[in-house]
Structure formats: C-alpha cells, structure tokens
Amino acid sequence: MNTRPDRPLRLGTRRSKLAMSQSGHVAEAVRAVTGRAVELVEITTYGDVSREHLAQIGGTGVFVTALREALVRGDVDFAVHSLKDLPTAQPDDLVIAAMPKREDARDALVARDGLTFEQLPDGARIGTGSPRRTSQLHAYARSLGKRIETVAIRGNVDTRIGFVRAGELDAVVLAAAGLNRLGRGDEATDLLAVDCVLPAPGQGALAVECLASDAALIAALGELDDPHTRAAVTAERSLLAALEAGCSAPVGALADLPPLSAPLEWGDPLVDGQIVNEMRLRGVVGTLDGSTLVQLSTTGPVPQSYDEAMALGRELADEMLAKGAAGLMGERSL
Questions:
Q1: Of 151, 162, 183, 214, whose CB is crowded by the most CB atoms within 10 A?
Q2: pLDDT of amino acid 277
Q3: Per the residue annotation, which of 31, 142, 154, 314 is the catalytic one?
C-alpha cells in the first residue's frame, strides 16, 4: 500500500497535546528504523468533540474509529493509539504492528498542597471520569477509614489539573504515563500503588496500527515492538474481553512480573542473574461506590505466544465471573 519510499510516512494521531506527544515519540522511533521522514496527520475523533462523559457515550472506540477510518481510506499509513482506548475486537483489515515498551502503568494523584491520597481529608472531592477509578478510589478510602466524593470530569490534562489549581477539587486522578510523556510527571503528588488501585487494561502502553495488507510496513514497525509489553497487555485485554466489558467498564487489570522482581522495570527478565519465567495477572471489578470488589490474581508461565497470553486472561476472567463479577459490571450502564 505504501510503495513510494521517497515520500514521508503519514502517521495518524489525535489532536490532543498528549496524543501529539505520544505520536511524536513513535515518529522519531520510526524515522530511526526506516530512515524515512514521518509526518503527523491530525485527526479529530468523536471522543474529542463530544462533551458527554465517556461512560455515557460508551467509551469503547470513541477515540479510535476516526483514526481507523483514515487508515482504511489510505489517508494515513499508520496510527498511534493509547492501548487502553482500543476495543478488544481487532478488525480483520488492520493489525497492531507494534506495542512499544510500556510506560508507568499506575494512576497518579495530583492534589492540592502536595497531599498524598492517604493525607487527603475526610470527604475530599476527587475528579475522575473513570468508573474503574471511581470504584477503586472509594474502596481505597474505605480501607483508610475515610470517605471521599468523586466528581465526574472530562478534558485534557491542563483542564483536569486546573480544577485543583482553581480550588474546585481537592485532587484529580490521571494516568502516570500521560503525565510522564508530557514531561509533567513531577506534578503528581502521589503514585497510587497497584495493590490499592489497579490500572485500566493496557494503561501506559501504545498501539501502532496499520493495514494488514501492508507487509513491508508491518515488518518495519515491528522493530518497535516490545514482546514483554505485548504479552502483558494481551493478557489484560483478554481478561477484559472475556468479561464482555468495554473500556468504560469498572475493570482494572495488570500483568507484571512476580513480587520477586518488583524492583525491576517491567520487561527486564532477569532477577539476580536468573530468568524470570512467570507472569502474574491481577484483575478487579467493583461497584461504583467501592463497597463490593471482586479482586483475584493468577500466576503462570510468561506467555510465549498470543494464544498463551489470551488463555491466561480468560482463565482469570472465568474465576472472576464465578465470584460474581458480571453482576458488578452491570452498574456501568447506570
């Protein structure tokens, strides 16, 4: 599909500052491996123009559809998505050619006066547009013997942090990866431990997508792929799909190395010179008020194939469904 090596590769991206930053990093990496110029093509998605809350408009695909349509039309050669925004069903005519090494998967708190979550006062007002965060933040607060009020918000990073700076909210919760990619990681006043708040499936990871028919481009983009990130995210998204939940459902999931290797960055297979051969997958579903959570984990061999990663996610989903997870996810339509 992309037969002219003399012309720049066209990278489709959302227009937001964060999306442009993410895509810019990928563009630099693609230039390095292909030797070709890469130009960013800005595309407006439904999620960017709608003022409704994501949970109301379904979440799944609202930031993705326009980018995929541009790919199919041939307006762009490849696109960069935040993986947590992608629907779990992959179109036959498109392929995720690369999942670069994952950024920090955790959620970050940006609070007034430099407060951590544990230091927030009883009744603190916390902004988030995510049912997943809402559920787990209430449960986390309850475990500390206090209550919080969650306030539904939307907008870019500046808008969300602006609610705190203006005194309208005590804190907001954002993805640490987004802050880091914008060079604003130091604005986080607390990084929420995954033992307390599990991230969204795929959080912190990017998907580089192109036409399934463009073998040459798939091979080139594949140079950016990180196999450990791909295995982890595939397991997380398999869990999400098996729960029959979209990306606006209150589902958290994270696949990582076992506790033995916790000090290492994800993707490093060595612990004291020994190969790490196990991966842990954790999942959570909860009521929006956090009063009831189904939170389970499983550990198995590090997946060596797509099918093995999918099987790990389905296994944990089956256990969660057996514990009543489906009934809790029904709240997302309220």
A1: 214
A2: 76
A3: 154
